[in-house]
Amino acid sequence: MLLKSIENRRSIRKYKPAPVSSEQIKALLTAAMLAPSACNTRPWRFVVITQRDALNKLAQAHPYAKMLETAPLCIAVVAVPNAQKNVRDGLPVGFYPQDCGAATQNILLQAEEMGLGSCWCGVYPKDATTSALAEIGVIQLHEDEVLFSLIAIGEKDESPNPRGKYEDEKVTWIS
Questions:
Q1: Would 119 be classed as within a structural domain?
Q2: Helix (H, G, I), strand (E, B) or coil at 72
Q3: Strand pairing partners for 147?
Q4: pTM of the prediction?
Q5: N or C, fewer C-beta in 10 Å, the chain?
Q6: Is there a domain that residue 175 lies in?
Q7: What share of the chain is helix, strand, coil (3-state, %, to 5)?
Q8: pLDDT digits (tens, 9 = 90+) for 9-60
């Protein structure tokens, strides 16, 4: 059941050195590309990073991505805002953050479903983080692209307690 995967998903910051298979990576990317997007513009592309030196550089450049030092895989979600420019009189323009957020969440849930751990490391809209990551040159971006998020993925080497819960007081009913 999907709700069980949502309940069990945690931000994992310690990974075992086991590699993630190419079949698993394809399943993660398939889940990402099945995410909804404004007017089906799919304003994204993905960079798969398994090279240890590159993972370590990303871990050092991003202030909250130290887990990439142990993760065997990082999927970078790259936003392509111009994909929404000339669609239906510009109706979807500006929705790329929501769309890339949905793709990122799909990767996290697919990882949990496959028994893998993951951690969403936000990049956009933090200019300092974006600049630091651009400086190291691991992820090459086109002029019209935005690095949206880094996702650490691998076999879990920790089991953090749940942090979220249903809170009735945060719900307003209009019926």
A1: yes
A2: coil
A3: 78
A4: 0.96
A5: C
A6: no
A7: 40, 20, 40
A8: 999 999 999 999 999 999 999 999 999 999 999 999 999 999 999 999 999 9
